[in-house]
Design a protein that fits this description.
alpha+beta, Nucleotidyltransferase, domain 5, about 10% strand, six-stranded mixed sheet, globular, about 35% helix, 22 helices, 3 domains
Length: about 650
């Protein structure tokens, strides 16, 4: 097998330009495409000028009698009837199984994106002369790798390709440089105010204040200024115990390097990180060390968004409406309604729905209940631009009103999406009033019995029923979600389905996967397999866990994973889980911040591919098939020093 270390002929020449550059993130649910025809003039131009084109990775056909076919983005732009939509998916279980459908989607979307590129003459093959970065399945079959490279070089005419995974690109995604700069600037302002002396200090509290009740130890000494507020620690710390301090804006600009899209790089990035890709077909935990995946530690969970959509269709079809043919609508409803219950290891608080455990949610069914109005396509004469008319809208329930507060208040946003506290308080007040009225009636009955000379209550009266838990009215039973006689709206109720279906990520035995590890155990197993007894690497992976993919944005998921993982992880390790702001598009965002020199070393030119074939590309890209016989080292290299931290 050829060596994995790239030789001088395996990289693009130094004089060869990396541009024009295209990035395609291929997912089983959606497709993302980003084109950069030339190097941007300014370092910050890449983050604004390059537009990301997103479209469904599917071909849809409407029901008879129209039977119209829509490809890719046309499903959302031109289709006006999503009821009974028949989908043709090119990817099954994460692998491309329908190459004809996949090529048709690529042709339409690439041509559409090229029409928006300035200076593109057109003609010839679609990507002729372009360098391409494309994502593939984590455990892609060797035969599919050959077919993918052959199609890209022969059918699209690319000049060079880098076949990689979404997790490797996501490891380059930014983790909040601007937040570090603002925190540092705020800390400097505080220090400047405190250094001005006693004139800048606030006056001491009055005598009636509790703070002035305790006398000072040295009355003659002048009051000392309070210490400066420490800036918030960066999530990009390269050590689990001592993260580096935030850098000022000038330092960031000095250390910024050119990226594949000429965007400024983040000042510090951890040497090792663990990317958890929560996709539509499956979930993968991928340890990444020195920008290369450690394949021996990659773990797969056979659960994803598609399984949740099928479970939602099954439950709704059994209880309310027949939704067996409404995969498209149920997938969109799942994205807007699902949340994750809090961990049993967290302290529950009644006023914070984000801390409610599954047992507490069972007693508060009415507070989390949502009532949706299904879309009506019978009177739709044209394309409905309003999202509510195309996918339905919420009539009542949590998440209907916007959240007022700071953007970084994660708990407040989750509370608003999970439960309606006003409905819960109204139910509790109604229950207290009902209990008080029952007590008054019992006292009146007892007085009547005593006046009439009846026997004691403890001998004749029936036992008093136990009070019901504080909750609002329960969800309607089967057959209650019928058509309203006053209008033509079809309403749908969602209550416990909102959190019980995502619970399969933490209890896979509920769907028959008895031998499958839960998500927190899967993450810990991936970190331990990658570390192989190296405590420093294990601690670095556990304190730099990043959630990406379409399911990563579910409310409560990050807190639940962190709490459950903290309970089973070694006590000496710091556990920290974060979610990127653009979790679903983490691969594209990471490619923007990828250094240009690193990309040039990864891109395989057409001339080299014609000489070495797919065997050379496997060794160059470091896929799992190239490392399966060599001990599963990081990025195609063996174990000899590839997993050692720098400086150790």
């Amino acid at each position: 097998m050829p060596s994995a270390t790239p030789s001088s002929s395996s990289t693009l020449p130094a004089s060869a330009s990396l541009y024009p550059l295209a990035i395609i993130d291929v997912g089983s649910d959606s497709l993302r495409l980003c084109l950069q025809p030339s190097a941007p003039a300014a370092p910050s131009a890449a983050l604004t000028s390059s537009k990301v084109h997103r479209c469904p990775n599917a071909i849809a056909r409407t029901r008879p009698p129209s039977k119209q076919v829509y490809i890719g983005s046309a499903i959302e732009e031109r289709c006006n009837d999503y009821s009974g939509l028949v989908l043709r998916l090119p990817i099954e279980r994460g692998l491309i199984t329908d190459w004809v459908a996949q090529k048709a989607i690529w042709d339409v979307e690439i041509a559409k994106a090229l029409r928006q590129v300035r200076g593109h003459a057109g003609g010839g093959k679609l990507l002729e002369g372009w360098n391409l970065i494309i994502t593939e399945a984590y455990f892609n079959l060797p035969e599919l790798e050959v077919g993918l490279e052959t199609m890209l070089f022969e059918e699209y005419g690319v000049r060079g390709i880098w076949r990689t995974t979404a997790a490797q690109l996501a490891s380059f995604a930014p983790i909040g440089v601007e937040a570090q700069v603002k925190a540092k600037a705020k800390g400097q302002e505080t220090q400047q105010v405190h250094s001005q002396g006693e004139e800048a200090l606030k006056p001491p509290p009055p005598a009636s204040s509790p703070l002035s009740s305790s006398p000072s130890k040295d009355p003659a000494s002048s009051p000392q200024p309070p210490p400066a507020k420490r800036p918030r620690r960066s999530a990009a710390a390269s050590s689990p115990t001592s993260p580096p301090p935030a850098s000022s804006e000038s330092d960031v600009s000095k250390r910024s390097k050119s990226s594949a899209f000429s965007g400024p790089r983040q000042p510090r990035r951890p040497e090792a990180t663990l990317i958890v890709d929560l996709g539509n077909s499956a979930i993968h935990a991928v340890p990444v060390l020195h920008n290369e995946p450690i394949w021996r530690g990659v773990k797969r969970l056979e659960l994803g968004g598609k399984v949740m959509t099928n479970l939602l269709k099954e439950q709704i079809s059994f209880k309310q409406w027949d939704m067996t043919d409404e995969s498209w609508l149920m997938a969109r409803l799942k994205e807007r309604a699902f949340f994750v219950a809090a961990s049993e290891y967290e302290e529950p608080l009644d006023e914070r729905p984000s801390s409610w455990t599954p047992k507490m949610l069972l007693q508060r069914s009415g507070a989390i209940e949502q009532e949706w109005v299904l879309p009506d396509y019978t009177g739709n004469k044209g394309l409905a631009r309003d999202v509510e008319k195309r996918y339905g809208h919420m009539l009542r329930g949590p998440g209907l009103a916007s959240v007022d507060g700071p953007d970084d208040d994660e708990a407040a946003r989750e509370d608003a999406c999970i439960a309606d506290l006003s409905a819960l308080q109204s139910a509790q007040e109604a229950q207290r009033q009902g209990s008080a009225s029952e007590d008054d009636e019992d006292e009146e009955d007892d007085g009547d019995y005593r006046e009439s000379g009846s026997e004691d209550d403890d001998e004749t009266s029936a036992p008093k029923p136990a009070p019901k838990p504080a909750s609002v009215a329960p969800a309607k039973k089967k057959g209650s979600a019928t058509q309203d006689p006053d209008d033509d709206e079809q309403r749908l109720l969602l209550s416990h389905e909102r959190w019980q279906i995502p619970e399969i990520l933490f209890r896979p035995e509920q769907v028959g996967l008895t031998s499958t590890l839960p998500l927190p155990s899967l993450i810990l197993s991936a970190a331990q397999s990658a570390a192989e007894g190296d405590d420093a690497l294990l601690g670095l992976l556990l304190c730099n866990i990043t959630l990406t993919g379409g399911l990563a944005s579910m409310p409560g998921l990050r807190r639940r994973v962190e709490a459950d993982l903290r309970a089973i992880a070694p006590t000496e390790c710091l556990v920290r889980v974060r979610t990127l702001e653009e979790a679903e598009g983490a691969a594209i965002e990471g490619a923007r911040w990828c250094p240009a020199k690193f990309v040039q070393g990864k891109v395989m030119a057409r001339e080299q591919w014609e000489q070495e074939g797919t065997q050379g590309s496997r060794a160059k890209f470091g896929s799992w098939s190239a490392t399966s016989g060599g001990g599963g080292g990081a990025g195609g290299r063996g174990r000899g020093g590839s997993t050692q931290l720098k400086g150790r």
